[in-house]
User: What shape does this take?
Amino acid sequence: MTADEPITRLVLADRSAPHVLCLTLNRPAQRNAYNARTIAELEQWLDYSEGCQAIRTVILTGCGSTFCSGADLQEVFDDGGRKLRNRHGGYNPLQHQPRRKIWIAALNGHAIGGGLEMALACDFIVASEQAKIALPEVTHGLLPLGGAIGHLATRLPLNLARELLLTGDAIDASRALGLGLFNQIAAPDALKDVALALAARINRNAPLAVQACNALLQRHAAAETDGSEALRQLQQSDDYQESLRAFSEDRPPQWSGR
Assistant: This one.
């Protein structure tokens, strides 16, 4: 590491490829669920990558067999999850974070809830053939406010977006590829090479032109949904309290619809 690079434990870094910063979520025992510290460390690396002219692309992956299982539920239900908001108020570590560099999510395994939202916030997604994605927030009495609603509404037909959002069911990598949510899928042992090859294809082009073109695309596709008021109302419901009790008692919740 150089003196300018962050020193972090929950996000590991590798700069062995030209113009590429590889970041690895490092909480395998928690299936790489992000907590407040993970968010802070990712923000340090985002700042570093934005300030380092030599870095043109960032590859984000996970340690072990899971990409990211979403927010750490121990902190989700603590003080309404306020500790899990990033410095710009985003509900996933990358939401609303200004950046120019290109990010590639390399899903080494399942991307669940906020983990999928973090992947969707990246510019490209490549995935292991074994990866699955899901948005199970409704099964916990919660809302996927980290960008999933806007991303899926613009990328998928509404009936398919509803299927993911309202059932909470998982879909596999081949279906996600067919729906256009993934750019490529690969055998697990080839995933890193696939991500690096994609980064090399991007990096051979003029970096300022790439960044400007991507910014225009993001501006055109922006469909963020502010669900703060919906979340506030949800947190006042009986079902939200039941979700807290069920989580603490390690049992399925019994929904009342009130």
In short: The two ends are 53 Å apart (CA to CA). Residues 67 and 109 are 5 Å apart (CA to CA).
